Amino acid sequence: MEVLERIVFLDTETTGLDPRLGHRVIEVAAIEALGRDLTGKYLHFYLDPEREIDAGATAVHGFSWDDLRGKPKFSAVAEELMVFLDGSRVVIHNAAFDVSFLDQELARLRQPLIAKRDIRITDSLAMAREKFPGKRNSLDALCARLGVDNSQRNLHGALLDAKLLAEVYFALTRGQGVLEIPLPEPVIEIKLEPEFPYDPNQVHEVFEVSLPAEIAELHEKYVLNLSEQSKVARRWV
Fold first, then answer.
1. What pTM did the predictor assign?
2. Helix, strand, or coil here: 39?
3. Which of 61, 177, 182, 217 would staple 13 via disulfide (CB 3.0–4.6 Å)?
4. Which residues are catalytic?
């Protein structure tokens, strides 16, 4: 039976930009998926930050301290949140930001930081930058590029952003791990002259692969183009 990976999509909102200046988490949401399907399980907390919220942050998410007075403090939800994240791949957009805030909150409670736990962090922003170099890769930009409806996102909110992140992540990873054309293992033979440094023109690669004719023709054109660009002779047999 196939074992599906448990993924948690996480987002936070904060009182400001830098936890080293005492800024705190005011909202956290975590949504569970198994494989590529959301399970419907999630956590969502509004938190009393016990301090004022920067005007710039309020402009982003809409919350003032008055809105959050009397809400639970992070200490009241920390254990439940960490149990929910434990043993999972946790996908975060711009992970360094959210993890730094969670670590600051955990450090206040003298609890193990994220890196000391059974939590595998995946940064969807880093994934997007690799896939779309030189382009804007904010969550809104990715929603527009990948056809994800974010029309309800007037302000940032952890729960909505975590839901959008899940859709963006599934779109970014669509088709990964799927082989549309079954191929035999390639046999690679590399011959180098004994001198060092070596001449790249002395590198020969031979791949023995059986493909449908139309696929073979496309690949042959690709290999020829690659040879012209790299100035290294390659053959597709």
1. 0.73
2. strand
3. 61
4. 156
